[in-house]
Design brief:
This protein has about 350 residues and is of the alpha/beta class. Helices cover about 50% and strands about 15% of the residues. It contains 16 helices and 12 strands. The protein has helices at about 10-30, 55-70, 90-100, 105-120, 140-145, 170-175, 185-190, 195-200, 215-220, 230-240, 255-260, 265-275, 285-295, 300-310, 315-330, 340-345; strands at about 1-5, 5-10, 30-35, 40-45, 75-80, 85, 125-130, 135, 150, 155-160, 195, 205-210. It has a 6-stranded mixed β-sheet with strand order 3-4-5-7-9-12, with helices on both faces. Helix 2 (about 55-70) runs parallel beside helix 4 (about 105-120), helix 4 packs antiparallel against helix 15 and helix 7 (about 185-190) packs antiparallel against helix 14. The longest helix has 19 residues, at about 10-30. It is globular. The chain starts with a strand and ends in a 7-residue tail after the last helix.
């Protein structure tokens, strides 16, 4: 027992306070606006680029499940506070748990995360994700599985996991494998950054709307009185633009990407890229790709390539189940210890 302003409290009192504190934290980290039949959810950890912690994931899962059963809710809008939609999952607690030998706690985190991904991928009501900023890793899982994904001139998309000793997860083996040609392998293995125009061109985004028009778009979306996605689509189509790809866009080099990233192994892909440098002018872009692959975790590259290839033949549920098993092997250090070692090297946790 311990002393508090209200007197003595025992174990039950402490547990109640801890539960209340967790609920308050999750409510402040995911803001909810109710506008007629529309619910607007805002990720609210701007100083952490809206990185997903377990409280946020649990809260989002609770809300999405409740809204699906609530006939008064017709549409859900998801966005982020600040300059990021969501920069991914919060890796700090996971690495701490793994270093302390508690890998099952890390596995519990991805259990909730992947469950949320599956709920979004199979959601019966339209969901609009407004990607006005950074979208990486877990942020992709939170948005790409939804029906509508709005990119802007501020959008920066990436799956940087191979540089961290991981692999593109959150159902990425499903959605990357369905991009044109072998663009998914390129994005997943290199961690390349895409802008909003590239996201629209390859299909990761369904619409492109200038950021100055987002407020007006939200106002019109809040007038939707039906869960029929065609009503939402009509509104989005009225706002969408089709920006030109930049001259140096990787998507304009899809022929080179297909020649190199269609190879059976990572080693064959690297060899193909190196051959391209002999007759490509200029070849700075290819040299950058080669550099990124050589800096990445070798084991992560191999399992990422295999994961994306297997994803082509699997449904989203199968992909998430397989990725969960893969994540557990990574957390246990059975594949390699690159994940923990890389993050320790970046001083994300104190190795002492």
């Amino acid at each position: 027992m311990y002393l508090c302003p209200g007197g003595l409290k025992g174990k039950e009192g402490r547990e109640e306070e801890e539960t209340r504190a967790v609920e308050m934290a999750s409510h402040s980290q995911v803001l909810v606006e109710e506008k007629s039949s529309v619910r607007i959810l805002t990720l609210n950890r701007p100083n952490q680029l809206n990185a997903l912690c377990l409280n946020m994931i649990s809260r989002l899962l609770q809300l999405f499940l409740a809204y699906e059963e609530d006939p008064s809710v017709k549409l859900v809008i998801l966005k982020g506070q600040g300059r990021a939609f969501c920069a991914g999952g919060d890796a700090l607690p996971l690495v701490r748990d793994i270093v302390q030998g508690k890998w099952r706690l890390a596995a519990n985190f991805v259990t909730y995360q992947y469950t949320l991904n599956y709920v979004l991928a199979t959601y019966s009501k339209p969901q609009v994700s407004i990607l006005n900023g950074i979208v990486m890793g877990g942020g992709a899982g939170l948005s790409i599985h939804g029906r509508f994904r709005i990119a802007t001139e501020n959008t920066v998309f990436a799956m940087p996991e191979t540089a961290l000793g991981l692999f593109p997860d959150v159902g990425a083996s499903y959605f990357l494998s369905r991009l044109p040609g072998f663009f998914g392998e390129y994005v997943g293995l290199t961690g390349a950054r895409l802008d909003g125009a590239e996201m629209l061109a390859c299909g990761l985004a369904t619409h492109f709307v200038p950021s100055t028009r987002l407020t007006a778009l939200e106002e019109d979306l809040c007038k939707v009185g039906s869960s029929d996605p065609s009503f939402v689509s009509t509104i989005l189509d009225a706002y969408t633009q089709h920006p030109h790809l930049k001259q140096k866009s990787a998507y304009l080099r899809l022929d080179v990407i297909d020649r190199c990233f269609s190879r059976r192994t990572v080693e064959e892909t690297l060899s193909a890229l190196e051959r391209e440098t002999a007759h490509q002018e200029p070849h700075d872009w290819i040299s950058t790709i080669i550099g990124a692959l050589k800096k990445a975790s070798p084991s992560s590259l191999k399992i990422s390539l295999r994961s994306i290839r297997e994803g082509r033949l699997q449904g989203v549920g199968e992909c998430l189940i397989r990725e969960y098993r893969m994540a557990c092997h990574v957390f246990k250090g059975e594949i390699s210890k690159d994940f923990v070692e890389v993050l320790l090297a970046f001083s994300i946790v104190d190795s002492s």
